[in-house]
Amino acid sequence: MADPRVDEKTGRYLPIIHDIEKPYWEAAKQHRLVLQKCGHCGHVRYPIGPLCSECLSDEASWEEMSGAGVVHNYVIYHKGWTDYLKAKTPYAVVQVELAEGPRLTTNILGLPASEVRIGMPVKVVFEDVTGTITLVQFSVQVQEATQ
């Protein structure tokens, strides 16, 4: 029996979208990164949830993030669990710390797993996987030379 979480056309695992997360995924389709910001203490929160992890307020608005961050941590996988992932091995799963504070678990596109480094500056990019799902991913942020 096929895994219902795997897209038949792409072989990719697709997210299960819960009602509370819909603004995040709708913004991603528009190539925008939005997260919840607490209306009481201003904490930008991730994972998405009904209460602020800092003050427990249920007040929140969806705010656009800068998309800038750094690699906080990563792991390199040498085994793929689907045909899609088998073709990508070895691949890195990274935890990116956004400039606004939250950490997102994601991938870095266009960079071999062996070149991922902690502290590496990255920027958000969007990968349109299906007609309805766009994934928030990252790419290496090129540092501008100072003269």
Automatic annotation (TrEMBL):
InterPro entries: ChsH2_C, ChsH2_Znr, NA-bd_OB-fold, Thioester_dehydratase-like. It comes from Pararhizobium polonicum. Residues 62-127 form the ChsH2 C-terminal OB-fold domain. Pfam families: OB_ChsH2_C, zf-ChsH2. Residues 25-59 form the ChsH2 rubredoxin-like zinc ribbon domain. The lineage of its organism: Bacteria, Pseudomonadati, Pseudomonadota, Alphaproteobacteria, Hyphomicrobiales. This is Zn-ribbon domain-containing OB-fold protein.
